[in-house]
């Protein structure tokens, strides 16, 4: 019997109703039913709150780095599962590809089953005042994950009724053209925009502007500049969002969670058992000489040499994104069993590539570490609470800075440059925060470079390279130094790597996925 991980029938178990009428009265794991639950806004919102955190972990942890930044040339890694993304030698058996696939189809499956259950509840007399916004949340998540699916794999399956598929036993689902996958994502986001509220009293909850911002990003990917401009402008003119003055703070402390710049963030929390609910980027990015008895650190991902060379002189984002020689955090006071180390760090953490390794020094392949989403050595050592691999900082997936740069690029449209005052104002707001001088004219290359440094290590640059088209992407990628501080390395980029292969295990389950795509619409 085939297993069914790609379409996440598990969502049907978590929801109170299954796909057919005979299942509507079957109790869930907590013995509730549609008849006696989802009668209050709190009960309904508790259902959709599950979409904000746990299901993202398989992508957010490592696959996001490998695909969005290692493959893009922003990060260096010597990890066995990540080197293929550095060298463009990955295969359909890659664990990173499988992890990302499972996450996106799991979320797609959960949202489909949640919507079905909520529609059924509404038909039984449930209150649309709080059910409809919850359905809109589901549309946002489903639209967002299919946006990722379309960008990562190109042609891919679309599944809107995973429970029915599971019950039918027919797993021969085709893959559809990328244009149809992206059209489906856009339709979902439109439904989200129509049903989400203007504001929400709970920090971190989606609003109408979250959907507008994500749609603007999708329209930009589609090169529909008019609609990208329109929606980005609506977010900007709403005055509901702004840039956070402290760029570094957004990525180094959970006190900045759900800040005024965040349109959509993966929500994290530390509990007595934080696995899945917490952020696990701290150990993968933190320097190994910052490890304590509270905080694990093993620097699986570090900045690439090419990324370090991308920053302009004086760019304040560099210190907020990268740890290099002389980078210091006085409030962090890590200690271990080495007396020389403790003496060196007595006045706070210092990033030093000269000091002897073990005595406080660190000398990794690019002589740098990622600062984003590293919250430190733990509460007992001057940082915030860390439980081994786990921290409570949210991961921002869509920021207001993105909306500003989307707007500037959309105004430029198909042109090579622009001096449009509104476009320059949006573009220069991002540069001003970074401590850089304003530009009086911007080109597409200016925007691409600005996006790279603004969103470095946030899993986004690969998609920016990809949407330039193969010829431009090849030019940019082959010019990147993907090596170490001592040994430069360059790659040859071929068109087959513009999109990732569908996981081999999924094709074994569904041979239709190995065939040519078909139309969904």
Automatic annotation (TrEMBL):
GO cellular component terms, semicolon-separated: cell outer membrane
Keyword annotations from UniProtKB, A to Z: Cell outer membrane, Membrane, Signal
SUPFAM superfamilies: TPR-like
Main location: membrane
Compartments, as annotated in UniProt: Cell outer membrane
Domain named RagB/SusD: residues: 291-516
Domain of life: Bacteria
InterPro entries cross-referenced by the UniProt entry: SusD_RagB_dom, TPR-like_helical_dom_sf
Record-stated family: Belongs to the SusD family.
Protein name: Carbohydrate-binding protein SusD
Organism taxonomic ancestry: Bacteria, Pseudomonadati, Bacteroidota, Chitinophagia, Chitinophagales
């Amino acid at each position: 019997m085939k297993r069914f991980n790609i379409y996440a029938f598990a969502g049907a178990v978590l929801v109170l109703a299954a796909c057919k009428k005979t299942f509507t009265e079957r109790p869930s794991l907590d013995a509730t039913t549609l008849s006696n639950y989802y009668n209050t806004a709190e009960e309904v919102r508790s259902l959709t709150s599950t979409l904000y955190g746990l299901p993202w972990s398989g992508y957010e942890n490592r696959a996001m780095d490998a695909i969005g930044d290692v493959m893009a040339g922003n990060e260096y890694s010597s990890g066995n599962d990540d080197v293929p993304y550095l060298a463009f030698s990955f295969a359909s058996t890659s664990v990173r590809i499988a992890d990302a696939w499972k996450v996106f189809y799991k979320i797609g499956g959960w949202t489909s089953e949640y919507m079905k259950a909520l529609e059924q509840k509404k038909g039984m007399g449930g209150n649309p005042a709080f059910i409809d916004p919850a359905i809109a949340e589901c549309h946002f998540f489903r639209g967002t994950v299919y946006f990722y699916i379309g960008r990562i794999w190109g042609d891919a399956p679309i599944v809107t009724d995973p429970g029915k598929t599971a019950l039918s036993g027919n797993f021969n689902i085709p893959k559809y053209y990328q244009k149809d996958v992206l059209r489906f994502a856009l339709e979902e986001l439109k439904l989200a925009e129509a049903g989400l509220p203007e504001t929400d009293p709970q920090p971190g909850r989606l609003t109408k502007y979250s959907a507008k911002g994500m749609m603007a990003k999708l329209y930009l990917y589609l090169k529909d500049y008019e609609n990208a401009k329109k929606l980005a402008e609506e977010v900007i003119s709403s005055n509901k969002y702004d840039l956070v003055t402290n760029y570094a703070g957004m990525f180094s402390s959970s006190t900045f969670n759900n800040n005024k710049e965040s349109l959509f963030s993966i929500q994290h929390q530390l509990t007595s058992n934080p696995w899945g609910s917490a952020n696990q980027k701290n150990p993968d990015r933190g320097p190994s000489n910052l490890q304590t008895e509270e905080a694990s650190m093993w620097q699986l991902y570090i900045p690439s040499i090419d990324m370090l060379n991308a920053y302009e002189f004086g760019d304040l984002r560099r210190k907020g994104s990268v740890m290099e020689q002389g980078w210091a955090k006085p409030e962090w006071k890590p200690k271990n069993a080495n007396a020389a180390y403790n003496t060196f760090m007595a006045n706070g953490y210092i990033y030093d590539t000269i000091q002897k390794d073990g005595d406080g020094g660190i000398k990794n392949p690019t002589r740098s570490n990622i600062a984003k989403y590293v919250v430190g050595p733990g509460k007992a050592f001057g940082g915030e609470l860390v439980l081994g691999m786990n921290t409570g900082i949210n991961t921002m997936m869509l920021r207001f800075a993105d909306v500003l740069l989307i707007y500037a690029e959309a105004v430029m449209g198909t042109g090579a440059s622009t001096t449009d005052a509104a476009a320059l104002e949006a573009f220069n707001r991002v540069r001003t925060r970074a401590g850089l001088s304003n530009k009086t004219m911007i080109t597409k290359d200016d925007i691409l470079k600005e996006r790279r440094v603004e969103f470095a290590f946030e899993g986004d640059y690969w998609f920016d390279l990809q949407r330039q088209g193969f010829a431009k992407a090849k030019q940019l990628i082959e010019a990147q130094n993907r090596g170490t501080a001592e040994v430069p390395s360059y790659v040859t980029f071929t068109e087959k790597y513009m999109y990732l292969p569908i996981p081999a295990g999924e094709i074994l389950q569904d041979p239709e996925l190995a065939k040519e795509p078909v139309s969904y619409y």
